Amino acid sequence: MKEIFNSYVKSRFIPISITIIFTIFILILLLNRFWQYEAFYYDHGMMESTAYQISRFKLPLHDRGFGRVPIYIDHLYPSLQLVLAPFYWISDSYETPIIVMSILIGLSVLIGYEIGLKLKINKYILYVLLFAYVTYIGFQNALIFFVHDITLQIPFLMLLFLAIVYNRIKLFYLLLIINLGFKESFSVTGLALGISLLLFYQKQWQKHAVMTILISVLYGLLASKLIIPYFQYISFGSWGHFGYTPDIKFDPLNNLLNFIDTLQKRETILTSLTNFGFLPLFSPFSMILLIQDFAQRFVLVGANSPLRQGLNLHYNANLAVILFVGSIFAVSKLQNYKLYRKLIYIHASIILIIAIIFHQFIYHGPYGLLYNREFYKITQNMTFMNDFVAKIPREGKLMIQNNLAVRFTHDDLYILSSEEYLDKVQPDVIALDFRPGQNINNYWPVTEEKMKNLSEKLLNDPLYKPLYKEDCRYIFVKNPVSED
């Protein structure tokens, strides 16, 4: 076994080295941003806390500004919780899920290399495509949203494609179930994958393609029609409905227009394809997967939502993998042509240049923080915030704002969302930090003005007393109840 391992490491020295370096970069980026209080309860803290609860064998609950409810009232992602939960048995640090996610996503580079190696594509373009993959702005922006279902799914989706090219059938089915467990919407991706396998892959995969379609459709129906509505029922007392049901209308022209009817949609499509040298367009296998990804975001669900259309949130995590794998499949076919073999180094170099330009000059990707000295100075200057957080008691019900809440997700936490909700919960501890000039996400769903008003109210509320008071930062605790 040791000889096999040593042989593997020796034969993969370059990709393993790249994987390790990339993983270190992710760790440096995410840990520093976490220490700078740039992680938020929505959605990092919400998902991280439910994984922690699973590790303690509890029903995963989260606070939604109207009360504690099971996490599954909106989406179903047991895979995220089952992947992260065991690591809390090693360490219950708030950095634990960030470290685990960084390592797993870093490994996706090595997995991607193995896919390209199996398909025997030119090594130069393989390394270039790996570079295009990790620097793709949609991928970078997904990372800085910390723990998220489809972001943590990245290495498992890459493994799913690896199982396909290596014809590991049992592993494929296991990974299909795991990927479905990251989010019920992957059932649509699974459906598209099954169709791609059926139409554009090896004949021996046809029966497995049909099974992939059936499993994906059945899981999607089970999740959206039974499991999620059930958790809505036990949460609210009435049988609910899945809030992300695709809006399918038999209007082909309107559906087609919805793919490109906003500048943001057109930019997402064009930038994504350009970043990979338009290679995915030469792979029929990946085209169906690309179309379904854009269809889910641009047509079927929230067609008019700017949050789902752009490159700036986590919605491009799966797309990054599909674009990379589609490019690999395309090159494996194109390099059979003599003309492309002559042009492959030129094409690869163009892709490399475009990826650098997109990252450095057009989108100014988050990796740029890694070589910015000021980024590390911000972390060093966070002592005043760490001291403030250390003063917040952890006993009883805690009501804390979005960016501070991620340090209290293992406690009895409630999110500061409104004055009415505060009156309803009557927390034992309330922490406010509304220093001017902050990221507005720090307060969400309240505002700086509302927090000011709330602090004034609490200062005059006989139920509470200030434990700590400094300019725009307060910690309030309940006054002891008189026994008279």
From TrEMBL:
InterPro entries: STSV1_Orf64 (IPR018650). It holds the Pfam family DUF2079. It comes from the Bacteria. Keywords: Membrane, Transmembrane, Transmembrane helix. The chain crosses the membrane at residues 12-31, 98-117, 124-148, 154-178, 208-228, 273-292, 312-331, 343-363. The keyword Transmembrane applies. This is Glycosyltransferase RgtA/B/C/D-like domain-containing protein. It comes from Candidatus Curtissbacteria bacterium RIFOXYA1_FULL_41_14.
